[in-house]
């Protein structure tokens, strides 16, 4: 059962976020259709995820494999992205649960995902490589100066399709303060793609507090939770 009031409230949140994405795209002379909204549903019940999908949110992001594996059977009809860190012992479960893995942060993990994707007939598995642009010790991701070395062997893996890069920006009080991180990810992606055009063009960056700045700086995926669903408990 989907609660219609719940669905309508989420639909209003979605309309508002899409409107803000469109305005930010306009400021940057970008086509808003090049930007996809990943609705981050971590901590939301399967019922609310179902309501979100009914409200038109067709791409959901989760940061834990087990939580998503538990909810997905009860919330069909969307594409699921893993946006949180992935431990190598959960790689198989992650592939069984998600359509896209945005948080690949080591060559070892990429190799394992490739092997399992081939084994499960899920190849090529779409992935993004997470970059720790700000070298924040609390965050996962390739160091920006290490990825040039790690990328070539990853691009050779038959089981993966590397769609682009992802980053988690710093928590900042003023959204504009996140801009340098987003610019740095875009510049890094351009440089890497000049060296090897097999790297895809997607840039996953920006969350509730700063997704408009991310869109202005080239995001193709924004990962938004609270601006759609309200504060998490
Ligand atoms: C929780 C989370 C988001 C969404 O955060 P909000 O502030 O709720 O928009 C985006 N990306 C990742 C990796 C997250 O863990």
List its salient traits.
single chain, 41% helix, 233 residues, eight-stranded parallel beta sheet, binds pyridoxal-5'-phosphate, 9 helices, alpha/beta
Can you describe this structure in just a few lines?
This protein has helices at 4-27, 46-54, 65-71, 91-97, 107-119, 147-155, 179-195, 211-216, 226-229; strands spanning 36-40, 59-62, 79-82, 100-104, 125-130, 160-166, 202-204, 221-224. It has 233 residues and is α/β, with parallel strands linked by helices.
Low-confidence stretches: none
* SSE pattern: HEHEHEHEHEHEHEHEH
Structural class estimated from helices and strands: alpha/beta
The strand order across the widest sheet is 7-6-5-4-3-2-1-8
Extended strand count: 8
The largest pleated sheet is described as: 8 strands, parallel
- Total of helices: 9
Ligands bound to this protein structure = pyridoxal-5'-phosphate
Taking the alpha carbons of the first and last residues, their distance comes to 22 Å
Radius of gyration: 17 Å
Approximate shape: globular
Mean pLDDT: 96
